[in-house]
Amino acid sequence: MTAKSFHPPVRTLMGPGPSDVSPRVLEAMARPTIGHLDPAFVGMMDDVKGMLQYAFQTKNELTMPVSAPGSAGMETCFVNLVEPGDKVIVCQNGVFGGRMKENVERCGATPIMVMDDWGKPVDPNKVEDALKTHHDAKLVAFVHAETSTGAQSDAQTLVKLAHDHDCLTIVDAVTSLGGTPLKVDEWEIDAIYSGTQKCLSCVPGISPVSFGPRAVERIKNRQSKVQSWFMDMNLVMGYWGGGAKRAYHHTAPINTLYAFHESLVMLQEEGLENAWARHAHNHQALKAGVEAMGLQFVVDEAYRLPQLNSVTIPEGVDEAAVRAELLNRYSLEIGAGLGALAGKIWRIGLMGSTSNQKNVLNCLGALDAVLSDMRAPIKSGVAVAAAKAVFAE
């Protein structure tokens, strides 16, 4: 057998991630590889750190990209802050709260679960009840933007509740960073992680994290070793710390970090508030088209993520066949439901570079055509016009 180069098809990525990657970011990856301790690379690391602080809206010194995907960012926060025997209040309203529970258990700690229906935000009253019942809890962990449902929780309120009961917080911002308002310092978030492949429109493989002063103090005063050598912040900061000479820790994913640097440059050029507004505006247009067809959203409007839209499947429609047709005929990817919502929803992403007028109109037109061909119970031929009316405002 003769090996051949792989040439992927060109797709429009409108699922739950990854999102479309800008040609600028792809070009950055093709630049010459240099050493991870090269002075030029170290200078770029400083740039990444500063721009990431801007994206997170924080001055936290311990703000850096973990050299692995978002799931590793999650694990980095948990293994550094959770010790064996700790009690951790974990909020679950979708898939990723369940992954937080797994992390707590693997750290030898006890998760205290606060459960909400999929598609609903985390209920602060339930969290407060759990905090009052478990006075010895050390942390509260929750997902700010639940990718499996498209629901956004009130991070500022949840963090304040935790602090009122002497708990630190771990926040999942994988789908919110760069897409909706996220203010780490103003909201006093203690530890937060995200991913590059959602609203930052970078290639997958990097997980931004940030630890505030309370979290750093907790890490420094641990009674036990961090269970992961690779993710131990005490060690990694010798490589990602500012000012001092960099100490070797691991070989960073050099070219992937070039890509991340470029995506952060693009975010700064657009402006964070402008990026938030763009995601919101494109969501309103998509919403108008979806509702004109007669389809509905799972999440109540007050808690709905603009960048991750969970849309109900019309009765009698084979949802997998629709996704396959969109991929084969239009080279358009949308996502399926997970867990409790599997087979009940499509997840339509409007994240990062994907979030633009052209993609909204193309997606609505393609979905309308496919569903009409399948004789689905929708209103045909009205979705695109409804979205255009929003864009014309």
From TrEMBL:
SUPFAM superfamilies named among the record's database cross-references: PLP-dependent transferases
Residue positions binding substrate: R347
Residue stretches making up the Aminotransferase class V domain: 73-337
Cofactors that this protein relies on: pyridoxal 5'-phosphate
A Pfam family of this chain: Aminotran_5
Any one GO MF annotation of this record: L-serine-pyruvate transaminase activity
GO biological process, one term: glycine biosynthetic process, by transamination of glyoxylate
Keywords on record: Aminotransferase, Pyridoxal phosphate, Transferase
Source superkingdom: Bacteria
Residue list for modification N6-(pyridoxal phosphate)lysine: K198
Record InterPro entries: Aminotrans_V_dom, Aminotrans_V_PyrdxlP_BS, PyrdxlP-dep_Trfase, PyrdxlP-dep_Trfase_major, PyrdxlP-dep_Trfase_small, SP_NH2Trfase/AEP_transaminase
Coiled coil: none
Signal sequence residues: none
Family the entry assigns: Belongs to the class-V pyridoxal-phosphate-dependent aminotransferase family.
Protein name per the record: Aminotransferase class V
Natural source organism: Thiothrix nivea (strain ATCC 35100 / DSM 5205 / JP2)
